[in-house]
Write a structure and sequence with these properties.
The complex is a heterodimer of chains A (253) and B (414). Chain A has 253 residues and is α+β, with helices and mostly antiparallel strands. Chain A has 5 helices and 13 strands. In chain A, strands 6-5-4-3-2-1-13-12-11-10-9-8-7 form a 13-stranded antiparallel β-sheet. Classes of the chains: A alpha+beta (253), B alpha+beta (414).
C-alpha cells in the first residue's frame, strides 16, 4: 500500500514537474520575433471600426475629445464627435495625412512641422499615428528578460528599427503580457537613447475570437513637463467591412 | 521766343489758377518721390537683414534641397553633401568674394517646459560664421556658440515665448537623416536680438560639430555653403556666373534675391502701387490742366481772335497754349521736387520707426527698427520730365479747340 502511494506521488510529481518544465520550455522557446508576431496578431488592425475618447491633461486642465474611426490597413478615417470639434476629420492614406475643418469647409494637407505637433493638442503626434505597419515589419527584436507589470508577468523586448524601413523611433522597449500577448507598457527612444515617450496600458479587454486588445492607454511625452493623454476605446469592431469609398478624399469633404 | 514770352506771361496773369494746378502736379511729384524713397528704404532694410542674418549674398546647396525645402517647408537632411576642395576653391576664387561659411540647417521642434515650437536649427562653424553673418553682433545675453558646444543661441522672441534665460535647459526634437526621432539637449548659451524678426523667433544656432552626432550625417556634411561678397551688385552677377558654371552639377546657386521670393514680389507690388497712386494723382492734374487751358481759352477768346487777325497761324496759337501747360508742368515739377527733396532729406537723416505703424512680425517681413529714406536722383529727373510731358499731352486737344476759333466770331465774342 505504502509502495502504491509513493509510486502515485512519484508519478504525480513527475507529471507536475514535466508540466511545469514544458511551460518553461514554451516560454523559453518563444523568440522575441515570435512574441511580437503574436502581439501583431492581436493589435494590428486589418479592418476595424472604433469609437474612442481622448482625455488630454495639460497643466491641471482636462480636455475631452470623442471620436470614431475606420481603419483599413495603412489607411484610416477619423471624425471627432465632441461638441467643440464636431465634424473635424482626419484622413490617412498611406504616407499622406489630411485634415478637414467643417467650420471653414477647408481641407488641409498636414506636412512639415505640423506633423511633429500633437494631434488635437494631445501627446500623440501626427507622426505617431502615421506609423501603421505591423511592428514586426518595422523592427528587429531581442528578448531582454521578464518583469512583472501591474501584477502580470511580461516579456521585456527591445526593438531596434530595421534599416530602410519607415519607423519613427529608432529604439523601443516593450513589455508584453505573457498570457495575452498584448503590450502593457512601451518606451520610445531617440537615436541618441533619449527617452521620448512612455505608453502604459491601463486596461485590456478580450474580444471575440480570444483576441486581447488594450482599451485604455496613457501616453506620456517625456520631453514636455506635465503632459499626459489617455485614450479610452469605447467600442471596437474587428474585421469591420469598410467600403473602399469610405476612406477617401471625397468622403473627407 | 515770342510765343514762349506770351505763354510765360499768360501763366502769371492767373497766378492763383497757375498755383492750384501746379500744386496738384507737385503733389503727384512729392507723393511719388517719397513713396519711392520709402519703398527703396524698406527694401534696402529688408534685403540687408536677409543678407546679414538669413541668406547671405549667395548660397549653394544641392538642387533637391531647395526644391524639397520649398515644397515641404521642411529642410531635408537627405540632401546634405560634403563640399569638395574643388568647389570650395572655385567659390573662393569668384570675383568680389569676401567670406564663406558652411551651415547645416534642419527643421526641429524646440521644447522647454510644457511648450514646443517649430524652429529652423542652423548648425554653424563658429570660426567662419561671423565673417558671413552678423548674429553675434546682436548678442544681448550670454555667449555665442563655440565649437563642440552643446549650448545653443536663441532669439529674443523665442526666449520670451518660453520664458527662458541663459543657462536654462532646452531640447530639440527632430527626425535624423534616417528619419528616426532624435534629440539634442543642452543649455541656452546666448540670446540674440537682431533686426530680423524671424531670426528672433524661429531660428536656433548650434555648433555643427556637436549637432552632426545626432543628425545621422557624417562630420563633413553641410546643407548649404554661404558666401558673402563685396557688395550686392557683385553678388547678383556672380550668382548668375556661378549658376552657369555649376549648371551641369547637382548644385544650385541662389542669390539673396532668389532666396527672398516674398520680398521680391513685395517689391514689385510696392512699385506697382506707387505707380498706381502716381497715375491717379496725375490724372487729377491732367484734368486740371485741361480745365485750365479751356478756361484760359474762354477768357482769351478776343485775344485769340486778335492774334489770328494779326496773322498768327493756328499751330502757333496751339504752341502758346501747349507752352503754357508745359510751364505749369515745370512749376509743378520744380515745387514738387524741391519739397520732396527737403522732406526726403529729413527722412534719410532721421528715418521712421517701422513698428510705430506696422506689426512687422505679424507681416512676416524681415525688418524691424528704423527705415531711412534713400536718394534716387534718377527718380527726381524721371518724374520732373514725366510731369511736364503729362501737362503738355493733356493740353494738346483743348489747345486745338481754342486755336480753331473763327477770328471774327472770336473778336465779337460769339
Amino acid at each position: 500500500m505504502m509502495k502504491k502511494v509513493v509510486f502515485t506521488l512519484l508519478i504525480l510529481s513527475l507529471f507536475l514537474v514535466s508540466g511545469g518544465y514544458s511551460n518553461c520550455v514554451l516560454a523559453a522557446e518563444l523568440t522575441a520575433e515570435e512574441i511580437m508576431e503574436r502581439v501583431d496578431e492581436n493589435e494590428y488592425l486589418e479592418s476595424a471600426r472604433m469609437e474612442a475618447k481622448m482625455i488630454i491633461e495639460d497643466r491641471g486642465r482636462e480636455t475631452i475629445k470623442e471620436m470614431y474611426s475606420y481603419t483599413k490597413g495603412e489607411n484610416s478615417l477619423s471624425e471627432f464627435t465632441n461638441p467643440r470639434d464636431r465634424g473635424t476629420r482626419y484622413l490617412k492614406l498611406g504616407d499622406d495625412l489630411w485634415m478637414y475643418f467643417p467650420a471653414a469647409e477647408d481641407l488641409v494637407s498636414i506636412s512639415g512641422h505640423m506633423m511633429r505637433e500633437g494631434m488635437m493638442g494631445s501627446d500623440f503626434s501626427y507622426e505617431d499615428i502615421m506609423e501603421s505597419q505591423r511592428l514586426t515589419e518595422l523592427y528587429n527584436f531581442e528578448l531582454q528578460g521578464e518583469e512583472v507589470i501591474n501584477g502580470r508577468d511580461t516579456y521585456v523586448v527591445s526593438a531596434v528599427a530595421r534599416e530602410d524601413k519607415d519607423a519613427s523611433y529608432y529604439q523601443r522597449k516593450i513589455w508584453i503580457d505573457q498570457e495575452r500577448f498584448v503590450i502593457l507598457k512601451e518606451e520610445y527612444f531617440s537615436t541618441g537613447g533619449r527617452l521620448l515617450k512612455v505608453m502604459e496600458v491601463k486596461e485590456v479587454k478580450e474580444f471575440p475570437g480570444q483576441r486581447w486588445f488594450p482599451v485604455e492607454v496613457v501616453m506620456n511625452n517625456k520631453l514636455k513637463a506635465e503632459s499626459k493623454t489617455t485614450l479610452q476605446i469605447k467600442e471596437l469592431d474587428f474585421d469591420y467591412d469598410i467600403p473602399e469609398s469610405k476612406i477617401s478624399l471625397e468622403t473627407l469633404e | 521766343m515770342y510765343l514762349l514770352r506770351i505763354a510765360f506771361r499768360n501763366l502769371f496773369r492767373r497766378r492763383k489758377r497757375t498755383l492750384i494746378i501746379a500744386s496738384i502736379l507737385s503733389l503727384a511729384v512729392i507723393t511719388f518721390l517719397l513713396l519711392d524713397s520709402f519703398m527703396m528704404g524698406m527694401m534696402d532694410l529688408s534685403f540687408g537683414n536677409v543678407i546679414d542674418f538669413e541668406t547671405p549674398h549667395i548660397e549653394i546647396a544641392r538642387e533637391n534641397f531647395f526644391a524639397e525645402a520649398d515644397a515641404k517647408q521642411e529642410l531635408p537632411l537627405a540632401e546634405t553633401f560634403s563640399p569638395s576642395q574643388d568647389i570650395l576653391a572655385e567659390l573662393k576664387a569668384s570675383q568680389g568674394f569676401s567670406a564663406l561659411t558652411p551651415v547645416l540647417d534642419f527643421s526641429a521642434n524646440f521644447i522647454a517646459g510644457r511648450e514646443e515650437f517649430p524652429v529652423l536649427v542652423r548648425s554653424i562653424e563658429p570660426t567662419t560664421f561671423g565673417e558671413v553673418f552678423k548674429n553675434e553682433d546682436y548678442l544681448v545675453a550670454g555667449e555665442f556658440v563655440e565649437a563642440g558646444d552643446s549650448g545653443v543661441v536663441i532669439g529674443s522672441q523665442l526666449a520670451k515665448f518660453f520664458n527662458l534665460e541663459v543657462g536654462d535647459f532646452y531640447t530639440l526634437r527632430f527626425r535624423d537623416k534616417q528619419d528616426y526621432f532624435s534629440t539634442i539637449e543642452g543649455e541656452v548659451k546666448g540670446i540674440v536680438s537682431t533686426p530680423h524678426p524671424e531670426m528672433n523667433l524661429g531660428t536656433v544656432l548650434v555648433a555643427r560639430d556637436y549637432a552632426v552626432k545626432y543628425l545621422g550625417v557624417s562630420e563633413d556634411q553641410v546643407s548649404q555653403l554661404m558666401l558673402r561678397m563685396d557688395n550686392r551688385n557683385i553678388a547678383l552677377s556672380q550668382a548668375d556666373k556661378l549658376g552657369d558654371k555649376l549648371a551641369d552639377s547637382a548644385y544650385e546657386v541662389r542669390s539673396y534675391r532668389d532666396a527672398s521670393e516674398m520680398l521680391t514680389s513685395l517689391e514689385a507690388w510696392g512699385y506697382l502701387e506707387t505707380y498706381f497712386i502716381l497715375a491717379l494723382i496725375l490724372l487729377v492734374g491732367a484734368i486740371g490742366i485741361i480745365n485750365a487751358i479751356v478756361l484760359s481759352a474762354l477768357e482769351r477768346v478776343k485775344e485769340i481772335g486778335m492774334m489770328k487777325a494779326m496773322g498768327l497761324k493756328e499751330s502757333q496759337i496751339v504752341q502758346v497754349f501747349v507752352l503754357e501747360a508745359g510751364g505749369l508742368g515745370v512749376i509743378g515739377g520744380l515745387i514738387g521736387c524741391t519739397v520732396a527733396a527737403i522732406v526726403n532729406a529729413l527722412f534719410a537723416t532721421f528715418g521712421i520707426d517701422v513698428e510705430s505703424f506696422w506689426d512687422v512680425a505679424e507681416l512676416g517681413l524681415p525688418m524691424s527698427g528704423r527705415i531711412y529714406g534713400v536718394w534716387n536722383p534718377s527718380s527726381f529727373v524721371m518724374i520732373f520730365l514725366f510731369v511736364i510731358v503729362i501737362a503738355v499731352v493733356a493740353s494738346i486737344i483743348p489747345s486745338y479747340w481754342a486755336a480753331r476759333k473763327d477770328p471774327v466770331e472770336a473778336i465779337h465774342h460769339r
